[in-house]
Amino acid sequence: MIKLTVIIPYPEIRERAENILAAQARPGVECEIIHAYGTAVDGLRLDRADIILARGLTQQALKRRYGDAAVLEFKVSAYDIIRALQACVHAHASDRVAIIAADSVLHDVESLKEIVNVDLKFFRIRDEAGILTALAEAERDGFGAVVGGLTACTLARERGWRTSVIRTSDETVQVSILEAMNTAAVIQNERAKAEIFRAILRNSREAILFFNPDGRLAVFNPRAREILNLPPAENLDGLTAAELLGDPEITAIIRERRERRALVKEVNQALVVCGFAPVRLAEQDIGVICTFQRAHEIQAAEHRIRKELNKKGLVAKYRFADIVHASPVLSQVIATAGKYSSVDANILLTGETGTGKELFAQSIHNASRRSRQPFVAVNCAAFPANLLESELFGYVGGAFSGAAKGGKTGLFELAHGGTLFLDEIGEMPLDLQAVLLRALQEGEIRRIGDDRLIPVDVRIIAASNKELRERAAAGRFRLDLLYRLDVLSLAIPPLRERLNDVGRLIEHFLRLFCREYGKIGLRLSSGALETLKSHNWPGNIRELRNICERLTVLGLNDEEITKEQVDRFLPVTSLSNEASRPAAMLPPV
Q: Checking CA distances to 513, which of 76, 107, 322, 493 falls within 20 to 30 Å?
């Protein structure tokens, strides 16, 4: 609530003031009217007043006493003085008039001498003693009448002078009260801003400190004591950064008013992440804002973000234990992949389609130190060149026609701290390969349409079912990019080179699909199993999985699947006796 106190010099003005205050009333502004004049203001109880409106000597005396409050003045116009002067001349027939008033009342009135046919002398006064001095001088100089404020005229009349009081017109009262109401609105706005600022300081999860240009603490919030282990009872205002924080590097940043972000320091035995921002006002440095966050709280926030990313599917589901196998050759590949998991170097997975390259990529990620970070996969052959670039690197709003208004985060940013799996990397266009190469070299990406570089920490696992060196020799793949990707190599053998795995895989898939489709007791005959083992498997694990699902769907409970049933679904690609096998009745998967 803003309190406005209006001090009127004479009772006749009260009704006008009340009417104008009622017409200008605003929410949150409380008004009162007090009758007083002169400089005897000690008895006025104005401590609660935010704005005081008074006139002449009263206004000057109040301004000296209540410097913090907004002490405004009832304006006195030149027309108000002219009216009083005319009344004096007509009533007293005096051609020599002394005008005695506060300096603010007599501001810029010397020109009145040129427009009235009266000898005028102006006396600018600050208090009653000044009025008496002015009267004595006016009497000595032979002036016959006095025009002035109520206090001046009262003292003059007591000494036998003819007087005319300068009265405030309705127009002047209205203008003065309107100015007071506007001032109240400004104070309300500033108080609201200050309360918002205090609320931000109180509720911020960061420690916030402001040091003035002398390097001394001027403002701090409650979290500063808690996070920085500052003394709870001691008055901290005015202490230096060295006294509060102790760290020489932080002290130098504050003294030199430098900007710095994400500085990790140990302050008063607390590991914190610091930020420093110089504050400028009217082209001058007025201090430095410093923020501090506990490192473990940032880590906890990152963990929550990772959980949200997991909800979006940016998570690796498979581990090495999920790789079904029995062959020694695949055991050796898994052992090598396990060693690769312990380092952060990029990996190139090669193998025919359907051999399980993404299964290995997810397993490597889950066995690495990045396992709690995002795993993001993208098939480079699934997007046109321009769309793939926006998928990988993102874009800012309005970067191109059809771009989302708020822009889009790219897969590199989503994978920050984790692993980005680039499947079918050999299908990536050459121009985009150059952009990818630079991102890998610099550890930075730039969104489409942006001028800002974003640092990223991403491990790349690339996969291809094509021979990339042959493509590089043919000019279809950048050799320098191949060297960046092929730091660690892992070749996944096709199923035909590890036929010992076929039986284990069939058991796994039949059990999986029987549970999914509600089948019981479905099994393979020995002849059916031998037929599947002798198949060439051009589609590798993916083809075997599809065959097992088809057999499960068509099989009956407690049925033994025969060799003849299997032959119906296999194309003529077996390792032996291919000519004797009937052609597939259904298209190969």
A: 493
Q: How far is the C-alpha of 29 from the C-alpha of 21, rounded, in Å? A: 10
Region of poorest pLDDT, from 32-41, 308-317, 579-588: 579-588
Q: Give which of 541, 341, 349, 333 is closest to 426, Cα–Cα.
A: 349
- Among 300-314, 322-336, 390-404, 521-535, name the one with the lowest average pLDDT: 300-314
pLDDT at 568: 85
Q: Cα separation of 355 and 330, whole Å? A: 11
Convert 51-65 into a string of H (helix), E (strand) and C (coil): EEEECHHHHHHHHHH
From residue 337, how far is each of 373, 385, 438 by CA, in Å?
19, 31, 27
Give the SS3 label for residue 360: helix
Distances (CA, A) of 221 to 56, 75, 206, 291: 44, 43, 9, 10
Report DSSP letters for 91-144, one per residue.
HH--SEEEEEEETTTTTT-TTHHHHSSSEEEEEEESSHHHHHHHHHHHHHTT--
pLDDT band at 476 (very low <50, low <70, confident <90, very high): very high
Residue 290 CA to its chain's centroid (Å): 16
Lowest-pLDDT range of 162-166, 309-313, 431-435, 522-526? 309-313
Half-sphere exposure in the Cβ direction for 312 (13 Å, CA) = 15
Mean pLDDT of 406-427: 91
How would you class 261 by CB atoms within 10 Å of its CB: exposed for 0-12, middle for 13-18, buried for 19 or more? Answer: exposed
CB atoms within 10 A of CB 141: 11
Nearest in space to 8 (alpha carbons), one of 164, 173, 144: 173
pLDDT confidence of 508, banded at 50, 70, 90?
A: very high
Q: Does pLDDT of 485 surpass 90?
A: yes
pLDDT at position 493 = 96
* CB-side neighbour CA atoms (13 Å) of 253: 22
Do 376 and 314 touch, CB atoms closer than 8 A? yes
Residues 6+ apart with CB under 8 A from 134: 98, 100, 123, 125, 152
Q: Can you say whether residue 192 is alpha, beta or left, with left for phi > 0 and alpha for psi between -120 and 50 degrees? A: alpha
Q: Beta-carbon neighbour count of residue 272 at 10 Å? A: 24
Q: What share of the chain is helix, strand, coil (3-state, %, to 5)?
A: 45, 20, 35
Question: In this structure, are strands 453-455 and 444-446 parallel, antiparallel, or unpaired?
Answer: antiparallel
